[in-house]
């Protein structure tokens, strides 16, 4: 119940739909049990006592009851659906909003398939209970209660005999639920595994194909698919084992009813109409009880789904605006690190160890060092994707936490090694960070990133729709669109994280030229493995195992005998010199 209480904010505002849906359900139940009562009246009073003048009234009454029942069923279902649909509409929005603001720390370990299934299957499971399951539970209590009441009113002894087998039915339903519930849980788990497999396969298709792993992947999918199939068959075996048994118990009740009820009619203790009414009423008890397992199942599924949704909704958002955070349109881009240390996980080594440096507005800082030395971590602290464990990161003399996240993100442009392009038009991709940008500004950004020419060659120019992974464009072209996107925001701090490592030398040359144009007036951080990418930087920082081991300009660093930078330089240029020597 705790789960439902915690999620109350989503469904309780729509209680009016729910209450009306239940009121109408009461009417439906009333009309349903009215049928056998009318039948009893018709047989015992109209037919047996030959009061035929009542026939038209009963016929009209029956017609209206049927009509009213139809209307009540319609509105009960409609309002119930409205209740569930509206509630999960809000819930879905809240979950999506949460996903936008969850810290990167959360995404480091989150699985896309799992999150997708929470946002779809779990939300749907919760809606089903709100729209349908809860009403069914109430319907069951009312229908069974009312039918029992009428049976005992007509004939307590017949009611007892008829319902004598009922405890067996309840016991069977209980046992059925005990077996079927974990089986359903397994199906859900197996389905989540299946969808995760498909999602991973589609995302990693390039790797699969390039390593010729299609057969292997089919095998792995086959295992998951077989598991899903087996779980389903196992569950349907439980159903097919229990349901005929439940029906059998139901029919025992009917046999007892006919036997003892027939005897009571013969001896004149009850009238035939009562026996006929009992015949309907007994199924109004047996059928809902047989469905009890299913209803309880929707309840426990909704509870499990609700818990999974709460796990996302209650995830702490540790990186957020403090109360009096400053919002600024434009920062100067003066970045300072003061004794910054950072680790991603408590039991991991320091990713950054006591880093201090200053980047004045408009200057270019190059970051170089081995894989995993902490270059990206520095830039992730500037954008406040993560919070440092120790020390301070300042922009324009104020700690990052003084600014709103929007201010920081609006003033920083990031181009990654492989940038993500959305499956929308080229124009929308470029103006993603600045949707109000005019067409001139978009074209200007594209020209500055040397993308304008190839965009004009696309079938619909700037309106060309890109595929999910920027389909139809080469790596370099995608990269140039990503650079245009960063320029379009006009950031005061630009971060180029390995932005040219995936493209050929010629494209790199073009992108470099574009960068030089773009970097004017912005504080720029260039992360690169190639010295050629950052040799023109005002200051180069050499990283090793999370520490800064050298800093200075290209010329200064080359002066250092046995220096790290010089070693990298020699490694990268040795071949070239050798080649030139040999060519002479
Ligand atoms: N999200 C993360 N969660 C846990 N550890 C991380 C995370 N990101 C980086 N690390 C760890 O932090 C250290 C520094 O990583 P970082 O990405 O900053 O290095 P890098 O110099 O940019 O490497 P590369 O050149 O390969 O991009 C590494 O040991 C890495 O394993």
UniProtKB/TrEMBL annotation:
Residues 19-301 form the ABC transmembrane type-1 domain. GO terms for cellular component: plasma membrane. It is found in: Cell membrane. The chain crosses the membrane at residues 12-34, 54-75, 128-152, 158-176, 248-266, 272-296. It is a multi-pass membrane protein. InterPro entries: AAA+_ATPase (IPR003593), ABC1_TM_dom (IPR011527), ABC1_TM_sf (IPR036640), ABC_transporter-like_ATP-bd (IPR003439), ABC_transporter-like_CS (IPR017871), P-loop_NTPase (IPR027417), Type_1_exporter (IPR039421). Gene3D superfamilies: ABC transporter type 1, transmembrane domain, P-loop containing nucleotide triphosphate hydrolases. GO terms for molecular function: ABC-type oligopeptide transporter activity; ATP binding; ATP hydrolysis activity. It holds the Pfam family ABC_tran. Its main location: membrane. Keywords: ATP-binding, Cell membrane, Membrane, Nucleotide-binding, Transmembrane, Transmembrane helix, Transport. Residues 335-570 form the ABC transporter domain. This is ATP-binding cassette, subfamily B. It comes from Alkalicoccus daliensis.
């Amino acid at each position: 119940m705790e789960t439902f209480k915690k999620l109350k904010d989503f469904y309780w505002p729509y209680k009016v739909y729910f209450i009306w849906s239940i009121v109408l359900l009461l009417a439906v139940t009333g009309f349903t049990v009215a049928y056998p009562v009318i039948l009893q009246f018709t047989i015992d009073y109209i037919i047996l006592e030959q009061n035929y003048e009542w026939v038209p009234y009963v016929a009209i009454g029956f017609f209206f009851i049927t009509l009213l029942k139809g209307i009540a069923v319609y509105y009960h279902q409609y309002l119930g659906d409205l209740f569930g649909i509206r509630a999960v509409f809000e819930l879905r929005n809240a979950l999506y909003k949460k996903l936008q603001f969850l810290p990167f720390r959360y995404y480091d370990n989150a699985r896309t398939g799992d999150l997708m299934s929470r946002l779809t299957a779990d939300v749907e499971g919760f809606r089903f209970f709100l729209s349908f399951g809860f009403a069914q539970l109430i319907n069951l209590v009312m229908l069974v209660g009312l039918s029992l009441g009428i049976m005992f009113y007509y004939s307590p002894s017949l009611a007892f005999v008829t319902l004598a087998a009922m405890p067996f039915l309840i016991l069977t339903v209980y046992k059925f639920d005990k077996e079927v519930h974990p089986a359903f849980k397994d199906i859900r788990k197996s389905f989540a595994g299946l969808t995760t497999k498909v999602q991973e396969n589609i995302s990693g298709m390039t790797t699969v194909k390039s390593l010729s792993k299609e057969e292997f992947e089919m095998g792995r999918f086959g295992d998951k698919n077989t598991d899903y199939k087996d779980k389903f068959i196992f569950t349907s075996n439980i159903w097919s084992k229990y349901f005929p048994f439940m029906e059998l118990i139901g029919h025992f009740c009917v046999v007892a009813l006919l036997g003892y009820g027939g005897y009571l009619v013969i001896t004149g203790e009850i009238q035939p109409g009562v026996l006929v009414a009992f015949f309907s009423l007994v199924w109004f008890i047996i059928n809902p009880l047989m469905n009890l397992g299913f209803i309880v199942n929707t309840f426990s599924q909704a509870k499990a789904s609700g818990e999974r949704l709460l796990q996302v909704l209650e995830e702490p958002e540790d990186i957020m605006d403090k109360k009096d955070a400053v919002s600024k349109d434009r920062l100067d881009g003066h970045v300072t690190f003061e004794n910054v240390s950072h680790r991603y996980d408590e039991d991991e080594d320091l990713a950054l160890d006591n880093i201090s440096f200053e980047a004045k507005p408009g200057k270019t800082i190059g970051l170089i060092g081995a894989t995993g030395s902490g270059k990206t971590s520095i830039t992730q602290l500037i954008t406040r994707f993560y919070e440092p464990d120790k020390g301070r990161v300042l922009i324009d003399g104020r700690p990052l936490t003084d600014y709103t996240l929007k201010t920081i993100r609006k003033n920083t442009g990031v181009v990654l090694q492989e940038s993500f392009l959305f499956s929308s038009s080229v124009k929308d991709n470029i103006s993603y960070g600045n949707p109000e940008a005019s067409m001139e500004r978009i074209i200007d950004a594209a020209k500055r990133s040397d993308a304008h020419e190839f965009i004009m060659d696309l079938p619909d120019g700037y309106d060309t729709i890109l595929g999910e992974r920027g389909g139809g464009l080469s790596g370099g072209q995608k990269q140039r669109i990503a650079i245009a996107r960063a320029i379009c925001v006009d950031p005061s701090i630009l971060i180029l994280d390995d932005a040219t490592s995936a493209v050929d030398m010629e494209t790199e040359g073009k992108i470099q030229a574009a960068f030089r144009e773009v970097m004017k007036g912005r504080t720029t951080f260039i992360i690169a493995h190639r010295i050629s990418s950052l040799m023109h930087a005002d200051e180069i920082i050499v990283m090793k195992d999370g520490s800064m081991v050298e800093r200075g300009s290209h010329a200064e660093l080359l002066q250092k005998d046995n220096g790290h930078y010089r070693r990298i330089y020699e490694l990268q240029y040795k071949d070239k010199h050798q080649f030139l020597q040999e060519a002479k």
